[in-house]
Write a structure and sequence with these properties.
The longest helix has 15 residues. With 74 residues, the protein is an all-alpha fold. It has one domain: Non-ribosomal Peptide Synthetase Peptidyl Carrier Protein, Chain A.
Length: 74
């Protein structure tokens, strides 16, 4: 998946207020956002993410690393 497409989709999935989302965007996941990320990763990338692993996610880049950096292109 192209990184820019991911930024747009994750912004929508998490209902982020930021005007622009990129790898450096800081995120603080609520309970509902955590579930949204888990569902999104499973649906789009066939990747199972554990809630405990999401506790370490602080940026969009961290989330991309958790999903698998090799799944993203420029």
């Amino acid at each position: 998946m192209k990184k820019n497409d991911f930024y747009i989709q994750i912004k929508q999935a998490l209902e982020l207020d930021e005007k622009t989302v990129n790898a450096k965007t800081t995120i603080h996941l609520s309970s509902l956002q955590t579930l949204a990320v888990i569902a999104y990763a499973d649906e789009k990338f066939i990747k199972r993410i554990k809630i405990i692993d999401l506790r370490e996610v602080k940026t969009i880049s961290d989330l991309m690393t958790l999903i698998g950096s090799e799944k993203f292109t420029d």
